[in-house]
């Protein structure tokens, strides 16, 4: 199997048993890897009775055929489990170096079940895998834990490691991945799934060569494309993912004050340009990536000094900064660092703090509830203090660590009316009142409010994909054809998550769909065209939908929160509109081949060989 090692690890922590299982070549062809293989295993190995925090839950992490093949921006893998935050399919896609090192150990994926009697970590290298004692670092933050684990294993190892938030089963706990760079599998509370299994970390380091069908042709093709990739992503390299924050605020895409405010002068103080001009000390790339979007910051003065750490990216600044109206970049950097240390999803953390600030403003909670912290808008000190409490699950942080929706239900007093979420997951920092595709995308993405399911806003601004009939950017407020447009991009990006390749390769058409299928053919030796790749994406997207419908998800759950449907943003130059959601959703179901309740029809299931 070119592009694969043809085997994956199955770890039963309850019985301390590790098995090596074969990858079915038919499934590899049908689902590719990454998101596809993880979804297939999760669907087959769990059911509606599976407790997200029970030993029976399955944590599946899979690489794809691109992983380790030296295709640019492919040092990524996909992780899935039933989410303790939403109760439905949970997933996260993460970069760094873990995926390549794991695959070079000779495995395509990892499945973890059961629960260890005491804290453990898993060590995987060229010679095999073993379960080891993690008691000495249980209770320690992710950085301290990773450093200790590297001392016990290999200096060049990468550790997927939880912090105290995951150990204490916070539903918004992430899985930081610490190697030569810091990245996080942040969304849907997968860190709590690891914590529930007494699994502190999975450390990996491998050196095996991946079998490729035509490595020489692949190397030449990638080399030919590399100058173009570097040219069109130059701004990403210079300013990072947050380089466009000022523009996004100007056009009404950047969330402000828990999604209420239209414009904000403070945005320029927290942009990628501001970071570049003040606290940026370096740039950090995922392994082998020419885009180099990662930031490293250093703060030498003020209340958060000394601080020398991974810098915040766009989504983190959008939630910790914009949603909370915090214009102190140093405070945002500190809060971001604490999220990495404690193992917290920055999006859900920032969104929950913004929700709490509004609850404080409305008098639903007071200083008595907040341990004396003044939760006024823009209070950077409060932001940092709350992240600390959420990471430790102390005081009000214990409730806030449940996420905004659960916190709102606990508070009562109509608090759910301003808890901005879909299916329990807080949105990323893109406004569906500015891009109608995201109205559909947030409502129908498998894990909840996720912009990455379609990553469609660039295609409503400047990008095109003629290989799938998107010949030019589509008007953001266009209704006709919006369902097909959104579904196509969902299928394409689901396929990308199965390969696995980064979204940012789409910037400036750095990498085209034609490049992708050509490289896949060179890696696997199997001729693959765009239609076949898109069918794979559609198959995986529908499989994830079937996982959720088995749990009772239907049209009643495919919603936007009231704030995003009934309250528009206003301000100079803003063109935001309230999406005609009912019509968009019905059009979408019809295009998908789902019934009016949002359930894939038997004909669609047969068509996709599900």
How would you briefly describe this protein structure?
With 610 residues, the chain is an alpha+beta fold. Helices cover 38% and strands 13% of the residues.
What topology emerges from the helices and strands here?
Blueprint: E1 7-12, E2 17-22, H1 25-31, H2 34-45, E3 59-62, E4 77-82, E5 89-94, H3 98-103, E6 109-113, E7 120-125, E8 128-133, H4 142-152, E9 158-161, H5 164-167, E10 175-178, E11 182-185, H6 190-196, E12 199-205, H7 215-232, H8 234-239, H9 245-251, H10 272-277, E13 280-284, E14 294-299, E15 307-310, H11 314-322, H12 329-342, H13 346-361, H14 380-392, H15 396-400, H16 404-411, H17 436-444, H18 482-499, H19 513-524, H20 530-549, H21 562-566, H22 581-592, H23 602-607
Parallel strand pairs: 1-6, 7-12
Antiparallel strand pairs: 1-2, 3-4, 3-6, 4-5, 7-8, 9-10, 9-12, 10-11, 13-14, 14-15
Helix pairs in contact: 1-2, 2-18, 2-20, 11-12, 11-13, 12-14, 13-16, 17-18, 18-20, 18-22
């Amino acid at each position: 199997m070119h592009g694969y090692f043809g085997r994956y690890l199955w770890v039963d922590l309850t019985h301390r048993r590790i098995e090596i299982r074969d990858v079915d070549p038919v499934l590899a062809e049908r689902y590719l890897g990454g998101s596809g293989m993880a979804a297939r295993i999760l669907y087959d190995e769990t059911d509606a009775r599976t407790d997200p925090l029970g030993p029976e839950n399955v944590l599946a992490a899979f690489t794809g055929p691109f992983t380790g093949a030296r295709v640019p921006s492919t040092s990524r893998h996909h992780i899935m489990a039933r989410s303790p935050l939403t109760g439905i399919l949970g997933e996260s896609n993460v970069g760094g170096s873990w995926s390549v090192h794991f695959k070079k150990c000779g495995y395509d994926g990892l499945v973890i079940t059961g629960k260890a009697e005491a804290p453990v970590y898993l060590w995987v290298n060229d010679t095999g895998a073993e379960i080891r004692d993690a008691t000495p670092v249980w209770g320690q933050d992710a950085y301290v834990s990773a450093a200790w684990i590297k001392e016990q294993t290999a200096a060049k190892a990468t550790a997927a490691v939880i912090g105290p938030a995951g150990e204490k089963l916070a539903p918004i706990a992430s899985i930081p991945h610490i190697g030569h760079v810091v990245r996080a599998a942040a969304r849907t509370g997968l860190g709590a799934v690891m914590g529930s299994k007494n699994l502190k970390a999975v450390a990996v380091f491998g050196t095996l060569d991946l079998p490729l069908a035509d490595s020489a042709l692949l190397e030449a093709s990638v080399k030919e494309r590399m100058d173009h990739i570097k040219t069109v992503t130059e701004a990403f390299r210079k300013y990072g993912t947050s380089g466009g924050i000022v523009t996004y605020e100007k056009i009404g895409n950047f969330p402000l004050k828990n999604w209420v405010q239209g414009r904000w002068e403070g945005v320029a103080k927290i942009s990628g340009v501001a970071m570049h001009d003040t606290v940026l000390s370096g740039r950090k790339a995922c392994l082998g990536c020419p885009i180099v979007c990662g930031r490293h910051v250093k703060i030498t003065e003020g209340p958060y000094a000394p601080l020398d750490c991974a810098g915040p990216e766009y989504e983190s600044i959008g939630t910790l900064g914009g949603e909370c109206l915090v214009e102190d970049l140093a405070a945002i950097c500190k809060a971001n660092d604490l999220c990495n240390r404690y193992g917290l999803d920055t999006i859900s953390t920032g969104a929950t703090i913004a929700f709490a600030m509004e609850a404080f403003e409305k008098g639903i909670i007071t200083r008595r509830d907040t341990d004396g912290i003044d939760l006024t808008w823009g209070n950077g000190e409060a932001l940092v203090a709350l992240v600390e409490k959420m990471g430790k699950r102390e005081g009000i942080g214990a409730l806030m660590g449940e996420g905004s929706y659960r916190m709102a239900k606990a508070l009562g007093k109509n608090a759910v009316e301003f808890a901005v979420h879909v299916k329990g997951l807080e949105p990323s920092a893109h406004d569906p009142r500015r891009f109608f595709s995201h109205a559909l995308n947030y409502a129908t993405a498998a894990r909840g409010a996720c912009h990455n399911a379609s990553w469609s806003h660039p295609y409503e601004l400047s990008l095109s994909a003629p290989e799938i009939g998107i010949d030019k950017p589509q008007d953001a407020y266009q209704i006709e054809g919006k369902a097909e447009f959104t579904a196509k991009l969902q299928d394409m990006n689901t396929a990308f998550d199965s390969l696995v390749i980064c979204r940012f390769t789409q910037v400036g058409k750095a990498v085209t769909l034609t490049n992708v299928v050509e490289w896949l053919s060179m890696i696997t030796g199997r001729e693959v065209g765009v239609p076949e790749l898109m069918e794979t994406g559609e198959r995986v997207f529908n499989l994830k939908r079937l996982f959720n419908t088995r749990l009772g998800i239907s049209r009643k759950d495919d919603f936007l929160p009231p704030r995003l449907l009934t309250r528009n943003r206003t301000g100079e130059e803003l063109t935001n509109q309230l999406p005609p959601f009912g019509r968009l959703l019905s059009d979408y179901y019809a295009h998908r081949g789902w019934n009016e309740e949002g359930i894939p029809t038997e004909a669609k299931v047969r068509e996709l060989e599900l």
